[in-house]
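Lab notebook, bench 4. We co-purified these components, and the gel suggests they stay together. Before we commit to crystallization screens, I want a quick structural picture of the whole thing.
Request: model the full complex, all chains together.
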Amino acid sequence: MDTTQRTEQQRSADRRRRELLEAADRVVLRDGPQASMNAIAAEAGITKPILYRHFGDKSGLYAALAKRHTDALLDSLRAALDAPADRRERVEATLDTYLAAIEARPQVYRFLMHPTEGGQTADQGFDVGKHSMPLLRRMGEELATVIEERLDLGPGSQQLARVWGHGIVGMMHAAGDWWLGERPCSRAELVRSLADLLWGRLAAAGDKMGGPGF
Amino acid sequence: MDTTQRTEQQRSADRRRRELLEAADRVVLRDGPQASMNAIAAEAGITKPILYRHFGDKSGLYAALAKRHTDALLDSLRAALDAPADRRERVEATLDTYLAAIEARPQVYRFLMHPTEGGQTADQGFDVGKHSMPLLRRMGEELATVIEERLDLGPGSQQLARVWGHGIVGMMHAAGDWWLGERPCSRAELVRSLADLLWGRLAAAGDKMGGPGF
DNA sequence: ACGTGCGTGTTACTAGCGGTAACCCTAGTT
DNA sequence: AACTAGGGTTACCGCTAGTAACACGCACGT
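Here is the predicted assembly.
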């Protein structure tokens, strides 16, 4: 039968694809986002054209690789966000989950943040921000839907939720990136400071005397 | 005299340097962050090795270029932050200034955010986040000092201020990037939504009924 | 007047990248 | 036995960042 044959081949192809992705994973974990196609092919024990047959081009491979990690991280984040606890505890748990993830595997984190930068071929017409940082975008959208679903924000809630989703994710990202580089405090302290910020301590803080009255 | 001679040469070199930077600026404005050294040299009417004599390598040129824009933008932001008005108005003015800047010249913005990505040569040992996004880091530190100077945050204020500085900048950045790509609302609305977030509306919002109680 | 540096510029090259065309070789079908 | 279909490789293209090595010009000390 034709179909069985095709499924057989499909299976083989899928297995190969997974093997290749795992090899690519190892290389990215070792070399960072600038892992070369040659290196990945060598790690997988084959040569470049096979990679290109499977993934089209580098962006394709990177997209597939990024999807795996992004999906995994998003699952953890959803779990943290859905845990049974009050809102502040959930927010803190989610922040902590994210920070723990980037702390555990910084190379992967860095790869996810800057996947397809700097190709020398037809990257033209790239519509600023279009294929940049899919992880951040996905997290932002995800958070936006959660906020919009669960919070009562009055009129214009959908738009507000999206702004907040992307804004909060960006806050988490930037603070995490900085923290990962300088390690100025413990993860728990960072989480608490960020939650404090989200909880309005900025607006509630009093002016210092002597200043121009910020 | 030796000194006059040296200053003469210094002047000449500086003038050339400025010319080269302006040429590079034009190319980056046209081609985005992936402008090639060849293209920049051609735009300046000279050839590659001169660029390398002046700036060392691509990172050097990009750093010099980034410093100009970053300094200019930081000046605008400082001005907005120092305007005579109450705190919320100042925050909104600062957000708006940033968003107006990235809206006006997205190519430059994109260049500033991802300056040295994707080189294929010895970028190894790059210490995650080390030479990434100098603009965000500088803005974060700047805002941190302002916060720490002017706000009364109680014990641990310095660390808290730094976390907040980087966090707020990241929020602004991510929201701006997303907004620039999708244009889901006007700049003013975005500014208002972000300020609302900073002003604690997240913590103050009530739960929607029927949900699991976010 | 004459070499002698030194700054400024070029050509021509290397090494490595992403990506591809052309070939090759083995397994299964008829 | 002949033929075909995939999986695989070699060898290449065009591009990039970066670098020798060479060439012109101009002020200088002797």
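Residues 67-117+130-201 of chain B form a domain with the Tetracycline Repressor; domain 2 fold (CATH 1.10.357). Worth comparing against the SEC data before the next meeting. Residues 1-5, 117-132 of chain B have pLDDT under 50 and may be disordered.
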